[in-house]
């Protein structure tokens, strides 16, 4: 694995990882990580794909991992305004680099959690630049709740500033994910996976579990509202192979319910989509028990494109 920095449209340096120890190259997976984590966590999965002919490339988003400037309080912060669109544009910068570096090779985008929302937005705007789409731990939220959340975030940003670490909105959103799994000795992150080692690793990682800033919450709510509009979903190429994968015990996807809802919405828009729910797994299926099965199933999907 090598680490490079790619310049975003506004000059920001995007810390990017490339796993390219591949002998017979089949294609490139552009990985889009989730909120409050970073790309290097996917090392095991990326190495597995390398041994099976797939290069993996992933950038740390703004406000995450090594792209975040800790001295400028950037952890959990995207931008004062239009942060979500900026993140999507950053993905296009990575995609352009891939196209330039590995000419005429298949590119599949895989987004996890918030990364799946970004990947859905990317597919609306640029589906002609990818050959497939894997959406892990995705969801469908109430538009009413999203609009309400956005209003709160806008008001709080005016009052406290864009870089305010917003525990208030976090308590209304992320905190509820652990409700079903809470015990006296809970870390608050048990919702991520059945595998306790993974939960401990996440909790101990200084670049994981940050609380979003007020502006980042505003950006997230705006992004979700954008990707859930029927007219936008219809912009995704209907010949683009898409798979939704999720744990049946994942609170983000409403324990499977809102993953199925997303599937139905995509089907209604006549997209080429399929769905697979993994029994008893939680949110981070690539790090959970049975992860080898997820690795293998993902590879199968990639090789069918």
From TrEMBL:
Residues 25-288 form the Serine aminopeptidase S33 domain. SUPFAM superfamilies: alpha/beta-Hydrolases. InterPro entries: AB_hydrolase_fold (IPR029058), Hydrolase_4 (IPR022742), MAG_DAG_Lipase (IPR051044). PANTHER family: PHOSPHOLIPASE-RELATED. This is Lysophospholipase. It comes from Spiroplasma monobiae MQ-1.
